[in-house]
Amino acid sequence: MNFDSKAAGTGAGSRLNRQEQQSRSVSPPSLLIPMSTVAISYARFSSAPQAQGASLSRQVERAREYAEANSLVLDPTLCFEDPGVSAWDQSNLEKGALGGFLRAVDEGKVPKGATLIVESFDRLSRATPLDALPVFLRIIGAGLNLAILTNPPQLFSRATLKESG
């Protein structure tokens, strides 16, 4: 599998240069994992000093705990990270791991029914709610679930949004 979280990232923790990132393809997850149990984590922090703290490890651990508690399989190759990448200016969408993930979604390389786990909405976007809505809708519209680890966690999907209406 080639869902390397750092493959699409451009922050300090990135392992590939920009040219390698653009040429790298993303493969679908193993068919041995039922689609409804696939979990994908996305973790982001925006500044280099935060790399010295526990932001990334905390987000990854919380995603792992959520996946375990909900009988989801969080494969390390399905973890996307944007260390040191801003969401204010949408760098995480334009050149970061989140953008790579969304491209894989658009290309059908992420199984429908998979759950993207993020610590909070501001990991995805720091834009106004109206400007952030397209990212949310792109994820849900592709048939994915979105777990936001608020207290209590919130799970969004096409089904839950229909129930809310």
UniProtKB/TrEMBL annotation:
SMART domains assigned to the protein according to its UniProt record, in alphabetical order: Resolvase
Domain Resolvase/invertase-type recombinase catalytic: 39-164
Ranges annotated as biased composition (Polar residues): 19-28
DNA-binding in keyword set: yes
InterPro entries, per the entry: Resolv_N (IPR006119), Resolvase-like_N_sf (IPR036162), SSR_resolvase (IPR050639)
Molecular functions (GO terms): DNA binding; DNA strand exchange activity
Domain of life: Bacteria
Name of the molecule in the record: Recombinase family protein
